[in-house]
C-alpha cells in the first residue's frame, strides 16, 4: 500500500493517518474533507501529506472513510464507483446496518470492509488526532465474508500493526449492542449536562461545586452533535430501547427513594458494583 | 497541632492523613475505625502512626471525621462531648444539613467546622488513600460563623497548606446544589451500569464492545454503597428533584427521537456542549 486516501481527517481519520505514517513511512497520505480549515490544519500538522478530492480516488490503494454516518451512507457507493479493482475501502462508522445495506448490491462490495474502531475521545477535528489512539482498542468488523480475502488480509495487517484487536460481528447485533455500551452513555452524559446547566441558570456558582466525578460522568456531553445526530437517527430503534430501559431503572430508583426503601437502594448499588470486574477487563 | 485523630481512615481520611504528615512532620496521626482490617492496613501503610479509640479523644488537637454521613450524625455529638475545650473537629460529609442540625445546640458547637471537600475517587478504604488528592480541590465550609475564630484559622491554615481552595455556603444551599453536581452523577452512573449489566445477561460479549467513553460515564458506579446509601437518604428531597429533572430530560430526548425530530436532537446536544467551557473551569 503506497497511496492512502483519508476521507474525513478529524479525530478518527487523523489518528489513523498519524499511526499509519509512523509504521509505514513509505505511504503517502492524501486527505479529503469538505471542511477546508480541517484540511489545511491537517496538512500543517503533518497529519496528511497532500490535499486531494474524490476525483483522485482511482489512484488509491486504500481509502479510509471516517465521516458522519449519514454522509457515509450516501458517499460510500460513489467512493466504490471511483476506486480501482484492487483498492480497499474501510469505514469507521458507529452504526453498521445502514452502511452495509447501502452497498450490499454494489458491484464492488467485495472491495469494502465494514469496521467500527471502538476508540475516540470527546474531542473532534484534526487537532484532536493523536498517535496511539488505537493501541489495545477493539475494532469490530462486520460481514467480513463479503470482502475479498486478499483485501481482508491487507486490512488485518494494518490493524494489527497499529495495535488493534479484532472482533467479528453481524451488523444487526453490532447496532443492537453498541446502543447499550456507547450510544446510551452519550445520551446519559448529554442529559446530565443539560439537567445541571438548566439548574445553574437559576442557582449561581453551582459548577463551583463540581468535582472530578461529575467531570467524568458528563465528559461525553462535549461530543460533536454533527457526528452523533446521524448515529442516533440510524440506530433509532435500538437507542430508544436502551433509553426505555435506562429511564425505567432511574424511575425505579426514584420510587425506592420515595418509599424510603434504602436497603433496596443499597442492593441496587451493590449489584451494580459488579461493573468493577467488567471495567478491569476493558483496558 | 500535635495530635490528630482520624475517625475513619478510608480514601478521604487516609488522604488527609498522608498530606498532613507530609506538611506537618511533627504531627502524630491516630486512627480510629470500626473496621479492624482498615485500621491495620492504615498502620502498615504508614497512613496513621497509632491505632486509637474514642476514649482517647480528650488528647486530640484536631479530629477529622470521614465516615458515612448517617454515622456522623450519631457520632458527632459524642465526639464533641469527649474532646477538650481547645480541640477542633472537622467533618468531610457529602451532606451538610443533617450534620449541622445534629450539633446545633451542642455546648461545643463552636469547636466544630462543617466541611465538604469535593475530592475523591470511586475507590474506598485506606489502600485507596493518595497523596495530593486535595491539591487544587474545593472545600465547602458551612456555617463558618458558628465556629470559634481561632479554630477557623487553624482549619484554614491546614486546608491552604494541603492546597485546597475554600468556598462558604449555608447547609441548605449546599445540599440542594450538591445533589445536582455530585449525587445525580452517581445515580446516573449506577443506573447506566445496571442497564448494561442487565442487557449483558442476555447478550453475551456486549462488554467486549465497551470503550473509554462507557468507562468514563459509568466510573462512579464502582462507588461504595455503604457510603452512598446514607447520603441519598439524608438528601432525599433534593436528590428526588434532580432525578425528576433528569428523567424528564431523558424522556424528552426519547420523544424527539420517536417523532424523528433530529434537528431538535442536534440542538439539545449543541446547547449542552456549553459544558466544555464549564468543565475547563473546574480543574
From TrEMBL, chains A, B:
UniProt key word Oxidoreductase: yes
PROSITE patterns: PDH_ADH
Annotated Prephenate/arogenate dehydrogenase domain residues: 2-283
Keyword Mitochondrion: no
Protein name: Prephenate dehydrogenase
Species whose genome carries this gene: Polaribacter irgensii 23-P
This protein's UniProt keywords: Oxidoreductase
Molecular function via GO: NAD+ binding; prephenate dehydrogenase (NAD+) activity; prephenate dehydrogenase (NADP+) activity
Entry-linked SUPFAM superfamilies: 6-phosphogluconate dehydrogenase C-terminal domain-like, NAD(P)-binding Rossmann-fold domains
GO terms under biological process: tyrosine biosynthetic process
Amino acid at each position: 500500500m503506497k497511496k492512502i486516501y483519508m476521507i474525513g481527517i478529524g479525530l478518527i481519520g487523523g489518528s489513523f493517518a498519524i499511526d499509519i505514517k509512523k509504521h509505514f513511512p513509505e505511504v503517502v497520505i492524501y486527505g479529503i474533507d469538505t471542511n477546508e480549515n480541517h484540511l489545511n490544519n491537517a496538512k500543517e500538522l503533518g497529519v496528511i501529506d497532500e490535499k486531494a478530492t474524490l476525483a483522485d480516488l482511482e489512484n488509491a490503494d486504500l481509502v479510509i472513510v471516517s465521516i458522519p454516518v449519514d454522509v457515509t451512507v450516501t458517499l460510500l457507493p460513489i467512493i466504490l464507483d471511483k476506486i480501482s479493482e484492487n483498492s480497499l475501502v474501510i469505514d469507521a462508522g458507529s452504526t453498521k446496518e445502514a452502511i452495509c445495506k447501502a452497498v450490499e448490491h454494489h458491484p464492488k462490495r467485495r472491495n469494502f470492509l465494514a469496521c467500527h474502531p471502538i476508540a475516540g475521545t470527546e474531542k473532534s477535528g484534526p487537532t484532536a488526532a493523536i498517535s496511539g489512539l488505537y493501541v489495545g482498542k477493539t475494532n469490530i468488523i462486520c460481514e467480513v465474508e463479503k470482502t475479498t480475502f486478499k483485501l481482508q488480509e491487507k486490512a488485518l495487517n494494518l490493524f494489527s500493526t497499529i495495535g488493534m484487536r479484532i472482533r467479528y460481528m453481524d451488523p444487526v447485533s453490532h447496532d443492537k449492542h453498541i446502543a447499550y455500551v456507547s450510544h446510551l452513555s452519550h445520551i446519559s452524559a448529554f442529559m446530565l449536562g443539560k439537567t445541571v446547566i438548566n439548574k445553574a441558570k437559576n442557582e449561581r456558582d453551582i459548577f463551583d461545586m463540581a468535582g472530578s466525578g461529575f467531570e467524568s460522568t458528563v465528559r461525553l456531553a462535549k461530543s460533536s452533535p454533527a457526528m452523533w445526530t446521524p448515529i442516533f437517527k440510524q440506530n433509532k430503534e435500538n437507542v430508544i430501547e436502551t433509553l426505555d430501559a435506562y429511564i425505567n431503572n432511574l424511575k425505579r430508583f426514584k420510587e425506592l427513594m420515595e418509599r424510603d426503601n434504602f436497603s433496596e437502594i443499597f442492593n441496587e448499588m451493590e449489584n451494580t458494583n459488579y461493573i468493577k470486574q467488567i471495567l478491569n477487563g476493558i483496558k
